[in-house]
């Protein structure tokens, strides 16, 4: 009798396990919640929200964006803590200070929440996946070549980042400076580290005013945040647009005027909407057990066949803007 009861119990456990597995497999995409935490509220991340909302409309995934009140890592941590308590399926984050977020990321993953980062390859070992639009060093070298061309291969130049803790900005900056140093020995970077614009037009404007006073012979200023328009405006207000040129990470809606009048000679970026779409879809694939590997299609332009190295998924999505093509873009 005991053997019979034991056999029945084992059978019940097997049946329950099978039913549970089937239920998991049959879970609809609309039952998953993926939340993207961006750096701050500005035009760049407004466009990222467009992509996340489009993913929700296209697939039925319950995904949305949270905006911290400012570019403060503590605010991102607070939002993550709230999402952990809610038990969402996945959190996507574009960190202001990647290292500062690691303890909270670890807490989320220990709670069974998938974490996907963007613009944070340096903490890829701490997340389930980091989604990048391209190899960041290549993007930086592209910017460095544009700076050299704008300077005619000689003279003084300087670079800006949003903040010294912003990993990708620093990688682009260093790759650009290294490229120029290796290939254009007659060019001189006027500072040992980049200037910070605080991810704002006003910050870029004010820092440019300081820079021009300190280095009146400077020929090119490049910005690794999308606020090169502030640099252009500071230059124009001083009637120096013929002698100082700007190369910048650029959002067409913020930079078209300056590209057309020639003060910004080169803009480059990737589409924030596409990055948001790809990152959130990758988070869903991971949360649903489908996974992301080399060749996976994340359904966004430039991410149709990602290359996965370790826990980083690289797309191929750089965009180059000039006066000739800027009207082709509407974000």
Report what the structure shows.
This protein is an alpha/beta fold. It has helices at about 1-25, 45-60, 75-85, 100-110, 135-150, 165-185, 200-215, 230-235, 250-260, 270-285, and strands at about 35, 60-65, 90-95, 115-120, 130, 155-160, 185-190, 195, 220-225, 245-250, 265-270, 305-310, 310-315, 320. β3 (about 90-95), α4 and β4 (about 115-120) form a beta-alpha-beta unit. α3 (about 75-85) packs parallel to α4 (about 100-110) and α7 (about 200-215) crosses α8 (about 230-235). It comes from Candidatus Pullichristensenella stercorigallinarum.
Keywords:
disordered N terminus, 331 residues, Peripla_BP_I, alpha/beta, Substrate-binding domain-containing protein, elongated, Bact_Solute-Bind_Prot2, 18% strand, 10 helices
What is the count of β-strands? Answer: 14
Would you list the SSEs in sequence order as H and E?
HEHEHEHEEHEHEEHEHEHEHEEE
Tell me the fraction of residues in β-strands, as a range.
Answer: 15-25%
State Rg: 23 Å
Uncertain stretches: 1-24
Helical residues, percent? 40-55%
Shape: elongated
Largest sheet: 7 strands, mixed
| Span between termini | 73 Å
Spatial strand sequence of the major β-sheet: 2-1-3-4-5-13-12
Provide the structure class.
alpha/beta
Q: State mean pLDDT (0 to 100 scale).
A: 92
Number of helices: 10
Summarize the structure.
The chain has 331 residues and is α/β, with parallel strands linked by helices. 46% of the residues lie in helices and 18% in strands. β10 (245-249), α9 and β11 form a beta-alpha-beta unit.
């Amino acid at each position: 009798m005991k053997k019979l009861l034991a056999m029945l119990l084992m059978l019940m456990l097997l049946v329950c396990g099978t039913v549970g597995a089937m239920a998991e497999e049959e879970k609809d995409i609309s039952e998953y919640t993926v939340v993207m935490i961006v750096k701050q509220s500005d035009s760049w991340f407004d466009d990222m929200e467009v992509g996340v909302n489009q993913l929700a409309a296209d697939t039925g995934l319950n995904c949305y964006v949270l905006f911290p009140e400012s570019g403060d890592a503590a605010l991102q941590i607070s939002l993550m803590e709230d999402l952990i308590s809610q038990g969402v399926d996945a959190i996507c984050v574009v960190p202001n200070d990647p290292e500062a977020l690691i303890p909270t990321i670890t807490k989320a993953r220990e709670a069974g929440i998938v974490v996907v980062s963007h613009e944070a390859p340096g903490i890829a070992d701490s997340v389930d996946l980091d989604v990048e639009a391209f190899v960041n060093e290549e993007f930086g070298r592209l910017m460095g070549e544009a700076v050299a061309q704008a300077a005619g291969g000689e003279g003084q130049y300087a670079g800006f980042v949003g903040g010294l803790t912003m990993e990708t900005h620093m990688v682009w900056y260093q790759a650009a400076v290294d490229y120029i140093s290796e290939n254009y020995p007659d060019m001189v970077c006027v500072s040992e580290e980049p200037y910070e614009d605080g991810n704002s037009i006003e910050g870029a404007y004010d820092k440019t005013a300081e820079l021009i006073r300190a280095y009146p012979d400077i020929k090119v200023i490049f910005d690794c945040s999308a606020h090169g328009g502030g640099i252009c405006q500071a230059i124009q207000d001083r009637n120096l647009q013929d002698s100082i040129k700007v190369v910048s990470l650029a959002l067409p809606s913020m930079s078209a005027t300056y590209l057309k009048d020639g003060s910004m000679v080169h803009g480059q970026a990737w589409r924030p909407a596409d990055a948001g779409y790809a990152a959130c879809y990758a988070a869903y694939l991971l949360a649903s057990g489908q996974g992301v590997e080399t060749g996976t299609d994340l359904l966004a332009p430039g991410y149709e066949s990602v290359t996965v190295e370790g826990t980083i998924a690289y797309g191929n999505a750089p965009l180059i803007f000039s006066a000739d093509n800027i009207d082709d873009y509407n974000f």
